[in-house]
Design brief:
The chain has about 325 residues and is α/β, with parallel strands linked by helices. The protein has one domain: TIM Barrel. About 50% of the residues lie in helices and about 15% in strands. The chain has 16 helices and eight strands. The protein has an eight-stranded parallel β-sheet with strand order 1-2-3-4-5-6-7-8. Strand 5, helix 9 and strand 6 form a beta-alpha-beta unit. The longest helix is centred in the middle third of the chain and has 19 residues. The protein is globular. It binds adenine and zinc ion (ZN). The site of zinc ion has 6 residues, from loops.
Amino acid sequence: MKLPVAELHVHLEGTLEPEMIMELAHKNGIALPYESLDDLRSRYEFTSLQSFLDLFYANMVVLCTAEDFTELTLAYLERAAASGVRHVELFFDPQAHTSRGLALGEVISGIRAGLAEGQTRFGISHQLIACFWRHAPASEAMELLIELVRDDHDIDGIGLDSSEVGFPPELFTEVFAYAREHGFRVVAHAGEEAGPDYIWQALDLLKVERVDHGIRCLDDPQLVKRLVAEQMPLTVCPLSNVRLRAVDTIEVHPLPHMLEAGLNVSIHSDDPAYFGGYLDANLAAVVNAFNLDIDTQAQLARNSFTATFLEAEAKVKLLAEVDTWLSAKK
Ligand code: ADE
Ligand code: ZN
Protein backbone atom coordinates (compact mmCIF):
# COMPACT_ATOMS: atom_id res chain seq x y z
CA MET A 1 0.00 0.00 0.00
CA LYS A 2 1.29 3.46 -0.95
CA LEU A 3 1.38 6.11 1.74
CA PRO A 4 -1.98 7.95 1.42
CA VAL A 5 -1.44 11.67 0.76
CA ALA A 6 -3.13 14.86 -0.37
CA GLU A 7 -1.65 16.57 -3.43
CA LEU A 8 -1.86 20.32 -2.74
CA HIS A 9 0.70 21.66 -5.17
CA VAL A 10 0.31 20.37 -8.69
CA HIS A 11 -0.32 22.46 -11.82
CA LEU A 12 -2.63 20.63 -14.22
CA GLU A 13 -0.66 21.95 -17.19
CA GLY A 14 2.50 20.60 -15.55
CA THR A 15 1.11 17.07 -15.83
CA LEU A 16 1.09 17.30 -19.64
CA GLU A 17 3.46 14.49 -20.62
CA PRO A 18 5.53 14.81 -23.82
CA GLU A 19 3.60 11.98 -25.52
CA MET A 20 0.30 13.76 -24.89
CA ILE A 21 1.77 17.05 -26.18
CA MET A 22 2.58 15.36 -29.49
CA GLU A 23 -0.78 13.52 -29.65
CA LEU A 24 -2.87 16.62 -28.93
CA ALA A 25 -0.82 18.71 -31.39
CA HIS A 26 -1.54 16.11 -34.06
CA LYS A 27 -5.25 15.89 -33.20
CA ASN A 28 -5.71 19.68 -33.07
CA GLY A 29 -3.55 20.48 -36.10
CA ILE A 30 -1.08 22.55 -34.09
CA ALA A 31 2.42 22.94 -35.54
CA LEU A 32 5.01 22.58 -32.77
CA PRO A 33 8.66 23.63 -33.20
CA TYR A 34 9.91 20.10 -32.38
CA GLU A 35 11.10 17.52 -34.88
CA SER A 36 10.19 14.53 -32.73
CA LEU A 37 9.32 13.34 -29.25
CA ASP A 38 13.04 12.97 -28.52
CA ASP A 39 13.67 16.51 -29.70
CA LEU A 40 10.95 17.75 -27.32
CA ARG A 41 12.38 15.68 -24.47
CA SER A 42 15.87 17.04 -25.07
CA ARG A 43 14.60 20.49 -24.06
CA TYR A 44 13.73 19.45 -20.49
CA GLU A 45 16.95 20.88 -19.02
CA PHE A 46 16.27 23.98 -16.94
CA THR A 47 18.53 26.62 -15.47
CA SER A 48 15.89 28.61 -13.56
CA LEU A 49 12.16 28.95 -13.01
CA GLN A 50 11.89 31.19 -16.09
CA SER A 51 13.69 28.74 -18.37
CA PHE A 52 11.08 26.14 -17.40
CA LEU A 53 8.12 28.50 -17.71
CA ASP A 54 9.09 29.37 -21.29
CA LEU A 55 8.74 25.72 -22.37
CA PHE A 56 5.75 25.08 -20.09
CA TYR A 57 3.70 27.92 -21.64
CA ALA A 58 4.81 27.05 -25.18
CA ASN A 59 3.64 23.44 -24.80
CA MET A 60 0.18 24.10 -23.40
CA VAL A 61 -1.03 25.59 -26.70
CA VAL A 62 -1.98 22.01 -27.63
CA LEU A 63 -4.89 22.19 -25.16
CA CYS A 64 -7.76 23.45 -27.32
CA THR A 65 -11.10 22.00 -26.23
CA ALA A 66 -12.99 21.12 -23.06
CA GLU A 67 -12.38 17.45 -23.96
CA ASP A 68 -8.60 18.03 -24.03
CA PHE A 69 -8.77 19.36 -20.47
CA THR A 70 -10.92 16.41 -19.39
CA GLU A 71 -8.47 13.92 -20.94
CA LEU A 72 -5.49 15.62 -19.28
CA THR A 73 -7.20 15.74 -15.88
CA LEU A 74 -8.15 12.07 -16.04
CA ALA A 75 -4.67 11.02 -17.14
CA TYR A 76 -3.25 12.94 -14.19
CA LEU A 77 -5.71 11.39 -11.71
CA GLU A 78 -4.90 7.88 -12.91
CA ARG A 79 -1.20 8.51 -12.27
CA ALA A 80 -1.95 10.27 -8.98
CA ALA A 81 -4.02 7.31 -7.74
CA ALA A 82 -1.07 5.02 -8.40
CA SER A 83 1.14 7.31 -6.31
CA GLY A 84 -1.14 7.24 -3.24
CA VAL A 85 -3.03 10.51 -3.77
CA ARG A 86 -6.45 10.44 -2.04
CA HIS A 87 -7.38 14.12 -2.44
CA VAL A 88 -6.12 16.80 -4.83
CA GLU A 89 -6.39 20.59 -4.79
CA LEU A 90 -5.55 21.18 -8.41
CA PHE A 91 -4.00 24.37 -9.81
CA PHE A 92 -4.54 25.66 -13.30
CA ASP A 93 -3.53 28.91 -15.04
CA PRO A 94 -6.67 30.48 -16.60
CA GLN A 95 -4.68 33.26 -18.30
CA ALA A 96 -2.59 30.69 -20.18
CA HIS A 97 -5.79 29.66 -21.95
CA THR A 98 -7.95 32.79 -22.09
CA SER A 99 -4.98 34.65 -23.61
CA ARG A 100 -5.16 32.14 -26.49
CA GLY A 101 -8.83 32.78 -27.03
CA LEU A 102 -10.32 29.86 -25.08
CA ALA A 103 -13.45 30.57 -23.04
CA LEU A 104 -13.06 30.30 -19.28
CA GLY A 105 -16.21 28.15 -19.08
CA GLU A 106 -14.80 25.62 -21.58
CA VAL A 107 -11.59 25.23 -19.62
CA ILE A 108 -13.27 24.94 -16.22
CA SER A 109 -16.05 22.61 -17.37
CA GLY A 110 -13.48 20.38 -19.07
CA ILE A 111 -11.36 20.13 -15.92
CA ARG A 112 -14.43 19.64 -13.71
CA ALA A 113 -15.67 16.78 -15.91
CA GLY A 114 -12.30 15.07 -15.49
CA LEU A 115 -12.28 15.61 -11.73
CA ALA A 116 -15.81 14.21 -11.35
CA GLU A 117 -15.00 11.13 -13.47
CA GLY A 118 -11.74 10.68 -11.57
CA GLN A 119 -13.57 10.70 -8.26
CA THR A 120 -15.80 7.86 -9.49
CA ARG A 121 -12.97 5.87 -11.10
CA PHE A 122 -10.14 6.40 -8.63
CA GLY A 123 -11.85 7.63 -5.44
CA ILE A 124 -9.83 10.86 -5.39
CA SER A 125 -11.72 13.85 -3.96
CA HIS A 126 -10.84 17.29 -5.27
CA GLN A 127 -10.92 21.06 -5.18
CA LEU A 128 -9.97 23.42 -8.01
CA ILE A 129 -7.72 26.48 -7.62
CA ALA A 130 -7.30 29.12 -10.34
CA CYS A 131 -3.82 30.66 -10.21
CA PHE A 132 -3.19 34.18 -11.41
CA TRP A 133 -0.03 35.01 -13.32
CA ARG A 134 2.18 37.31 -11.28
CA HIS A 135 4.05 38.43 -14.42
CA ALA A 136 0.81 39.88 -15.85
CA PRO A 137 -0.78 43.08 -14.52
CA ALA A 138 -2.87 42.75 -11.36
CA SER A 139 -5.66 44.54 -13.25
CA GLU A 140 -5.88 41.52 -15.59
CA ALA A 141 -6.13 39.16 -12.59
CA MET A 142 -8.87 41.39 -11.14
CA GLU A 143 -10.86 41.32 -14.40
CA LEU A 144 -10.62 37.55 -14.48
CA LEU A 145 -11.65 37.26 -10.83
CA ILE A 146 -14.66 39.51 -11.42
CA GLU A 147 -15.64 37.25 -14.33
CA LEU A 148 -15.24 34.14 -12.14
CA VAL A 149 -17.57 35.67 -9.55
CA ARG A 150 -20.06 37.20 -12.00
CA ASP A 151 -20.52 34.00 -14.00
CA ASP A 152 -20.45 31.81 -10.88
CA HIS A 153 -17.66 29.58 -12.21
CA ASP A 154 -17.00 26.50 -10.15
CA ILE A 155 -13.73 27.45 -8.43
CA ASP A 156 -12.79 26.76 -4.80
CA GLY A 157 -9.75 28.95 -4.41
CA ILE A 158 -7.25 31.23 -6.04
CA GLY A 159 -3.47 31.13 -6.13
CA LEU A 160 -0.56 33.12 -7.52
CA ASP A 161 2.17 31.64 -9.72
CA SER A 162 4.58 32.13 -12.67
CA SER A 163 7.78 34.25 -12.68
CA GLU A 164 8.52 35.23 -9.09
CA VAL A 165 11.43 37.66 -8.74
CA GLY A 166 10.33 41.21 -9.61
CA PHE A 167 6.63 40.45 -9.13
CA PRO A 168 6.05 40.66 -5.36
CA PRO A 169 2.79 39.55 -3.71
CA GLU A 170 2.00 43.14 -2.70
CA LEU A 171 0.98 43.84 -6.31
CA PHE A 172 -1.99 41.50 -5.78
CA THR A 173 -3.23 42.77 -2.40
CA GLU A 174 -6.56 44.04 -3.78
CA VAL A 175 -7.13 40.96 -5.92
CA PHE A 176 -6.71 38.68 -2.93
CA ALA A 177 -8.89 40.89 -0.71
CA TYR A 178 -11.66 40.69 -3.31
CA ALA A 179 -11.24 36.91 -3.56
CA ARG A 180 -11.42 36.46 0.21
CA GLU A 181 -14.52 38.68 0.40
CA HIS A 182 -16.16 36.43 -2.17
CA GLY A 183 -15.45 33.23 -0.25
CA PHE A 184 -12.46 31.85 -2.18
CA ARG A 185 -9.70 30.01 -0.33
CA VAL A 186 -6.34 31.69 -0.94
CA VAL A 187 -2.81 30.37 -1.50
CA ALA A 188 0.27 31.81 -3.21
CA HIS A 189 3.67 30.72 -4.46
CA ALA A 190 6.27 32.58 -2.39
CA GLY A 191 9.87 31.98 -1.43
CA GLU A 192 10.65 29.61 -4.30
CA GLU A 193 13.38 31.77 -5.88
CA ALA A 194 12.61 35.09 -4.16
CA GLY A 195 13.52 35.75 -0.53
CA PRO A 196 11.63 35.80 2.76
CA ASP A 197 10.16 39.27 2.09
CA TYR A 198 7.85 37.68 -0.49
CA ILE A 199 6.63 35.19 2.13
CA TRP A 200 5.99 37.99 4.66
CA GLN A 201 3.94 39.81 2.02
CA ALA A 202 1.97 36.68 1.15
CA LEU A 203 1.07 36.29 4.83
CA ASP A 204 0.47 39.92 5.79
CA LEU A 205 -0.97 41.37 2.59
CA LEU A 206 -2.56 38.46 0.75
CA LYS A 207 -3.48 36.64 4.01
CA VAL A 208 -2.84 33.27 2.43
CA GLU A 209 -3.87 30.01 4.07
CA ARG A 210 -0.94 28.06 2.60
CA VAL A 211 2.40 29.07 1.14
CA ASP A 212 3.48 27.21 -2.01
CA HIS A 213 7.19 26.31 -1.82
CA GLY A 214 8.28 28.71 0.96
CA ILE A 215 11.71 27.07 1.16
CA ARG A 216 13.53 30.42 1.40
CA CYS A 217 11.86 31.08 4.79
CA LEU A 218 14.92 29.57 6.45
CA ASP A 219 16.87 32.72 5.54
CA ASP A 220 14.85 34.62 8.17
CA PRO A 221 14.60 33.25 11.75
CA GLN A 222 11.78 35.67 12.66
CA LEU A 223 9.75 34.40 9.72
CA VAL A 224 10.39 30.79 10.70
CA LYS A 225 9.15 31.61 14.22
CA ARG A 226 5.96 33.09 12.79
CA LEU A 227 5.33 30.18 10.40
CA VAL A 228 5.91 27.65 13.17
CA ALA A 229 3.66 29.53 15.62
CA GLU A 230 0.83 29.64 13.06
CA GLN A 231 1.59 26.15 11.75
CA MET A 232 1.26 27.69 8.30
CA PRO A 233 1.32 24.89 5.70
CA LEU A 234 4.25 25.01 3.26
CA THR A 235 3.80 22.88 0.14
CA VAL A 236 7.33 21.76 -0.72
CA CYS A 237 8.23 20.25 -4.11
CA PRO A 238 11.72 18.70 -3.86
CA LEU A 239 12.24 17.52 -7.46
CA SER A 240 11.04 20.87 -8.78
CA ASN A 241 13.51 22.69 -6.53
CA VAL A 242 16.38 20.59 -7.87
CA ARG A 243 15.36 20.77 -11.54
CA LEU A 244 14.78 24.55 -11.40
CA ARG A 245 18.08 25.06 -9.57
CA ALA A 246 16.48 26.55 -6.44
CA VAL A 247 18.74 24.03 -4.67
CA ASP A 248 21.89 22.41 -6.05
CA THR A 249 21.09 18.78 -5.31
CA ILE A 250 18.50 16.79 -3.38
CA GLU A 251 21.13 16.11 -0.69
CA VAL A 252 21.27 19.81 0.21
CA HIS A 253 17.51 20.40 0.05
CA PRO A 254 16.40 22.31 3.18
CA LEU A 255 13.61 19.83 4.05
CA PRO A 256 15.41 18.31 7.08
CA HIS A 257 16.03 21.80 8.51
CA MET A 258 12.41 22.72 7.91
CA LEU A 259 11.24 19.62 9.77
CA GLU A 260 13.70 20.22 12.58
CA ALA A 261 12.45 23.80 12.96
CA GLY A 262 8.89 22.49 13.46
CA LEU A 263 7.53 23.92 10.20
CA ASN A 264 4.32 22.43 8.82
CA VAL A 265 5.64 20.98 5.57
CA SER A 266 4.19 18.47 3.17
CA ILE A 267 5.59 17.03 -0.06
CA HIS A 268 4.16 17.65 -3.54
CA SER A 269 5.02 17.42 -7.21
CA ASP A 270 4.50 20.90 -8.83
CA ASP A 271 4.90 19.96 -12.54
CA PRO A 272 5.52 16.22 -12.51
CA ALA A 273 5.70 15.74 -16.29
CA TYR A 274 8.62 18.20 -16.38
CA PHE A 275 10.53 17.42 -13.19
CA GLY A 276 10.93 13.67 -13.27
CA GLY A 277 8.20 12.36 -11.04
CA TYR A 278 4.81 12.45 -9.39
CA LEU A 279 4.13 12.72 -5.67
CA ASP A 280 5.47 9.24 -4.89
CA ALA A 281 8.77 10.03 -6.65
CA ASN A 282 9.10 13.27 -4.70
CA LEU A 283 8.54 11.42 -1.44
CA ALA A 284 10.96 8.67 -2.43
CA ALA A 285 13.60 11.27 -3.28
CA VAL A 286 13.54 12.82 0.20
CA VAL A 287 13.06 9.51 2.00
CA ASN A 288 16.21 8.19 0.31
CA ALA A 289 18.27 11.37 0.55
CA PHE A 290 17.56 11.89 4.25
CA ASN A 291 16.75 8.39 5.43
CA LEU A 292 13.35 9.53 6.70
CA ASP A 293 11.80 6.96 9.03
CA ILE A 294 8.21 5.80 8.68
CA ASP A 295 6.98 8.08 11.47
CA THR A 296 8.35 11.11 9.63
CA GLN A 297 6.81 9.90 6.37
CA ALA A 298 3.46 9.49 8.16
CA GLN A 299 3.83 12.99 9.61
CA LEU A 300 4.39 14.46 6.14
CA ALA A 301 1.24 12.68 4.93
CA ARG A 302 -0.77 13.91 7.95
CA ASN A 303 0.44 17.44 7.30
CA SER A 304 -0.84 17.17 3.72
CA PHE A 305 -4.33 16.17 4.91
CA THR A 306 -4.59 18.77 7.69
CA ALA A 307 -3.54 21.47 5.20
CA THR A 308 -6.41 20.66 2.79
CA PHE A 309 -9.51 22.82 2.45
CA LEU A 310 -11.71 19.82 3.33
CA GLU A 311 -14.25 19.77 6.15
CA ALA A 312 -13.11 18.29 9.47
CA GLU A 313 -15.03 15.04 8.96
CA ALA A 314 -13.33 14.28 5.64
CA LYS A 315 -9.94 15.10 7.13
CA VAL A 316 -10.50 12.65 10.00
CA LYS A 317 -11.28 9.85 7.53
CA LEU A 318 -8.17 10.52 5.46
CA LEU A 319 -5.96 10.87 8.52
CA ALA A 320 -7.18 7.42 9.65
CA GLU A 321 -5.82 6.01 6.37
CA VAL A 322 -2.36 7.22 7.37
CA ASP A 323 -2.71 5.40 10.73
CA THR A 324 -3.69 2.22 8.86
CA TRP A 325 -0.60 2.57 6.62
CA LEU A 326 1.62 3.12 9.65
CA SER A 327 0.22 0.11 11.55
CA ALA A 328 0.80 -2.09 8.50
CA LYS A 329 4.43 -0.93 8.39
CA LYS A 330 5.14 -1.60 12.09
N1 ADE B 1 3.81 27.41 -12.66
C1 ADE B 1 4.03 26.10 -12.82
N2 ADE B 1 5.02 25.70 -12.02
C2 ADE B 1 5.44 26.78 -11.32
C3 ADE B 1 6.41 27.00 -10.33
N3 ADE B 1 7.21 26.04 -9.88
N4 ADE B 1 6.57 28.26 -9.85
C4 ADE B 1 5.81 29.25 -10.32
N5 ADE B 1 4.87 29.09 -11.23
C5 ADE B 1 4.68 27.86 -11.74
ZN1 ZN C 1 4.01 25.50 -8.38
